[in-house]
Structure formats: C-alpha cells, structure tokens
Fold each of these.
Amino acid sequence: MSYAEQMFSLTDEIAIVTGGAGVLPSAMATTMLRAGARVALWGRGTNHPVQEAVEKLVRETGVSADRMTAVTVDTADEQAVEAAFDQTVSDFGMPTILVNGVGGNSGKGDFVDIDVTAFEQVVSLNLLAGLVIPLKACARRWMDAGQDASVINLASMTSYKGLSGVWAYNAAKSAVLNLTEGAAKEFAPHGIRVNGIAPGFFLGYQNRALLVADDQTGELTARGQAIIDRTPFGRFGKMEDIEGATLFLASRRAAGFVTGVTIPVDGGYLVDNI
Ligand SMILES: NC(=O)c1ccc[n+]([C@@H]2O[C@H](COP(=O)([O-])OP(=O)(O)OC[C@H]3O[C@@H](n4cnc5c(N)ncnc54)[C@H](O)[C@@H]3O)[C@@H](O)[C@H]2O)c1
C-alpha cells in the first residue's frame, strides 16, 4: 500500500449515507466506495428510489455489488431509523461512518408571509431527519458497543450567513453547524468524531428549480446568476468537488484528531468581497 493509500483507505469501514439517492450524498458515497468502504444507502424510496441509486453507483464505480446495500427508511421516523440500523448491521456488521445527507429547501418568501407549517417541515427535514434522529440512534449504538466512528453532517453557506427568503433553511442549517460542535464535544470521549461539510452551490434535486430557469438551455434564474457572480470560482460545484473533504473527514488515519469542524467546499463563496 502506498502512503496515500494508507492515509485514505476506508477498507475496514462501513458507511451509512442518508438521503443516499440524492446528488451530493451519492457523490460522497462514491468516494467512500472507491476508497474501499462498504456503503449502505438509506433513502425514503419515494422520489429517488435507493435501490436504483445503488445499481447506478455499482455501475459507475465498478465496485462489486456486495459492497453496497439499499435501505428504504424515512429518517424522520425514529423507529424506522432503529430498524434501518439493525438492517445495516445484519447486511454488513457495525457501521463506522454516518453521512447525514438528508436535507433541502423548498420555496422562499418574505418574513411576514412565512407559512408556519412549511417552516416547521423544512426545519424538521434538515435538523431532525437530517441530523438529530440518525445521529442519536447511531451514537447510542456506538457507545453501547464501544465502537469509534465518524459522522459527517451537511451544513451550508446559510449556516454562516443566511440567504434571503429561505428563513427555515437558514435557521436549520445554522443549527447544523452549532450541533456539529456540541455533539463533537459530547461524543469525543467515546471516540466518535462529528464534523461537517458546508457545500457552496451544487445542483441538487432540492434546489435546482431555484437556480436553473431552463434545463434545456442551462439558463439560470436571477438567483442562480447572483450566486455565480458571488462565487470567486465563477461556477457551481461539480460533484467530484465534494469527494476530497469527504474522504479526509471519513479517514481515521487522516482526520483521527479532527472533530467539531465544518469544512466549506464552496469555490470561495465565503471569502468573496468587493
Ligand atoms: N446542493 C447544494 O448546493 C447544497 C448546498 C449546501 C448544502 N446542501 C445540503 O446537502 C444535503 C444534500 O443535498 P442535495 O442537494 O444533494 O439534495 P438532494 O435533494 O439531491 O438529496 C437529498 C435526498 O434526501 C432524500 N430525503 C429527503 N428526506 C428524507 C427523509 N426524511 N428520509 C430519507 N431520505 C430523505 C431525498 O429523497 C433525496 O434523495 C442536504 O442536507 C442539503 O441541504 C446542498
């Protein structure tokens, strides 16, 4: 094994990727598969069926199909998450990595027009289904088993500074940053590292309509163009852009002393100035 392989190999790791059929979670699963991990994709199975996503990733990466499994689960449902954990243990053994990939935004508007029900749904999606419920279930099992582990949460540019009109998403994603730090402190004595990645702007299923006006021509919405104008690299992220940070945080050799950090992968969006 080369030095780089020793540093970043995930051959002994078993990763859960929630929202695993989604765009960024799939890219994160891809890099972990390529680094040798076995990967359980967890997803709701409604809009983007996880079984199809598994088949696609097996085709694209060329890994053997027995290194992946699909688990249909709504991560907002605590009992279903416990059952999904049991299924993953029975498929592969004790998981060692959790990527909290569930999340997303829907709609935007003025503060005075906030629809409280819709607001609650977005907060619940990003904070409960997207972090608290899976982390709670996994951390309890890991502590009971004396298993060390690595967690990667999905924060956002809105974790640092809100975007206009997406009030619930702003609130939830700033809380993701906060809970990543708090959980890192609490779980450190158990060898459980909790970190995050804050992607800049990537075209996912959940935000495409907000950023792209015309899928045929690639014409952007005014908001999509404003984002490009404020991203020093002058483009949206490509899926492979998220791979390196994922591999680094997942690797116990490379990041074994790293916890509570969130790494922006944003083409310079956070350091833009005039
Ligand atoms: N795309 C971006 O530019 C961007 C930027 C910053 C942060 N993020 C965050 O990264 C994460 C992934 O984003 P994406 O753009 O790849 O989204 P995506 O919509 O492509 O993927 C999310 C997946 O989660 C699944 N899902 C939603 N609710 C679920 C639930 N309760 N249980 C199980 N599965 C569920 C969806 O079906 C979908 O397959 C989200 O947390 C998002 O907020 C994305």
Amino acid sequence: MRESDHSGTKPSIIVLGAGISGLSAALALLKRGHDVTLLERGDVGAEASWAGGGILSPLLPWDYGETLSALTLRSMVGYAEWVADVEAQSGRVAEYWRCGMQVMDVAEPDRAIAWCEAHDVTIERRAFQTGEGLWLPGIAQVRNPRLVVALREAVVRLGGVIHTRDAVETVVSRAGHLVAVRTAQATYTADRFILATGAWSGIALPDLAGVPNIRPIRGQILLFRLEPGMLDTILYRKGLYLIPRRDGHVLVGSTVEDAGFDKTIDEATRRRLHSEAAELLPVLAGLDPVQHWAGLRPGSPGNIPVIDRHPHFDNVFVNVGHYRYGVTMAPAAVELLMDLMEDNPPALDPAPYRWQAALERRWTDAL
Ligand SMILES: Cc1cc2nc3c(=O)[nH]c(=O)nc-3n(C[C@H](O)[C@H](O)[C@H](O)COP(=O)(O)OP(=O)(O)OC[C@H]3O[C@@H](n4cnc5c(N)ncnc54)[C@H](O)[C@@H]3O)c2cc1C
C-alpha cells in the first residue's frame, strides 16, 4: 500500500469528493497557496453536479426561508464574476447565461412580488403566450457539466492533484485529529480534510460519522435537441422546468424521488415530463428526447447544507447537503467554508449551517 507524501512546506489538504462542492473548495484553497489533493470514488463531477439543470436560483425563491436565501442570493450576486474567474483559470467556457425565467401559474403572485422586492430580485407581471405569469429577467443559468470540466481544469492547472476511482473507505485518527484516509489503493495523509461527498455524506465510514439528515433524492431529467434560438429563457410551471442551452438543447425536469441510491429511470416519468413540457413548448410534442437520466441530489431538510467543522475532529470540515441548489450555492458555500477554516469573521451567519443545527432539523413528508 502506497502512502502519499505531503512533505512540502504548504499546508496540505485532502478533499473527499470531486463534485462542484469539492472542486470549488479545492480551487479556493489552491488560490490561497495550499497543497490540495482530491479523492473521488468515480469520475470528476459525474454525479449530481453533472446530472443537474444549472439554474442559478431556487425555483420559487419566495417559498424558502431566509437561511436558504442568504446563501443563494449571495451566490447569485457574484456568480458571473466567479464563473469568469474559473474560465480564466481553466481556459474553458462554462456558458453562464442570464437568460431570465418565466414562471407560470403562480399561486400567490402578490406574495412573490413582495418577496422579490424585499430581496432586490427584479420581477414583473407579464402575459405570456402560455398565460399570465411572472418574469424574472435576472435569473441566470450555467451549463453545469461544462462548469465541472472548467473547475477540474482550473484545479489541475493550479497544481491540484485529483485521484479518480479512488473511494475513501476508512480513516485513521488520533485523539480527535484525523491523520489519514484510506482507499483500496493508498493511505493519504494531510494536515486537514474536507468532506464533500454529496448524497453519500450521510453514510458513516468506520470511525467517521455520517453527516446528520443527508440522504439521496433522485431527480430525472429529459434532454431534447432543437434548433438554436427556439427557446431563449427558462420556463417554469408547477414543478416542471425547461432550460434552454445556447446550442439548442433543452432540458426538461425534474422529479423529486426518495428512492435511496437508485438511479433507475422509468418510462412513465419520461412520458409525463414529455407531455407536460409539450404544453409549455408545443414543438416538443413531435420530438423524442435524445437522453434521459437520473441524478442523486444530496438531500437535506429545507435544502440547508452543513458547512462546519466536523464535531469529532479538529481538522475536518464539511461542505455537504446543498440538495436542489448546490450549483447555485457553490460560491457562497465555499466562501463560508474558507472563513471557518481561516477563522475569519464570516460574511454569513454560520449558525444555521452548523452540524448541530442539522441534527435538529427533521425531514417532513414534503420534499
Ligand atoms: C436532476 C437534478 C437537477 C438539479 N438542478 C439544479 C439546478 O438547476 N440548480 C442547482 O443549483 N442545483 C441543481 N441540482 C442540485 C445540484 O446538482 C447538487 O446540489 C450539487 O451538484 C451537489 O454537488 P456535490 O459536489 O455536493 O455533490 P456531487 O456532485 O454528487 O459530488 C459528490 C462526489 O463525492 C463522491 N464521493 C462520495 N463518496 C465518496 C468517497 N467515500 N470517497 C471519494 N469520493 C466520494 C461522489 O462520487 C461524487 O462525485 C440538481 C440536481 C439534480 C440531480
């Protein structure tokens, strides 16, 4: 068994999990001069961070509490700049696009408008071809599979090391301090560790407690291919969204299913998503989806992640459980994580994202 060597002078940090949460943390640490290694069980960014839609906002932001909004709004304000920096570091394009979002059939439009006005989110009432609705011109998207590629490239260019197909299976600790993590291939030592293992974060490893109340929530998505320009804004109605990409692809999603670690897709869902999408964009009725997949969101009660020091180890931090909005939250979540790791006064109140706070939250029947 190989033992990794972190004998350099820079503090060494191992990040477990190379989704957007782990990659964005790794990038921030590399920019601060740390020696960073990522350990990934599968391929880089191939789980939720690839499978998701890339809308950079909660779907109906007025339906969430202030704990979620604090993270998402902070990210949304700085996202264009954050992506531009990732693109500059990587030489890759992530397709950030402020395409706006049309929301149809809003139950309480006055409440939605009041919330947006109070939170500095531009919103207007509009009559669309599909009916009355609300228009949010500032909502953006990013092409998340491309963002993940750009993040990976940026990490590598800044000297980060990524081991794929290398799952962490056990840990070595001494008196509340993590010394090393073990995979089938090697034992890796470091000064500090970050847990960014997405939907798998609730599973305890021997001697490493699972993060409370995190569980996988499956989401199925369809992909269509249209001519570029046939849809140029996000459409949302009653739980269903259509996301256009610049090259004409349109994503249709998504389901919210409590089905364990099962990424099976099913025909009934394909038909339902297709017919609901065709009501919003009739041209889809005559097309077949070119792809249909499922991803596992790192579910958490209330969509509230855990960003904290691990309660059992002084040198382990966690950045997990961003549930439906992990692409959106990435920059603000990592900013908070860095503040905690560096003992800076945090820009966001860290209390609601603490491990202890997650212990007190409960899953309800509503997903
Ligand atoms: C259908 C769907 C639609 C979505 N739409 C949006 C959206 O529009 N906007 C938005 O903001 N968010 C969206 N999301 C949510 C978003 O994708 C997630 O919140 C985000 O990707 C979580 O990132 P992550 O890095 O925490 O998890 P992941 O991307 O799942 O990464 C975790 C990684 O950890 C690895 N890992 C696990 N255990 C180990 C181990 N023991 N050792 C080593 N590696 C390990 C896994 O292999 C995985 O690669 C969507 C998700 C889905 C599924």
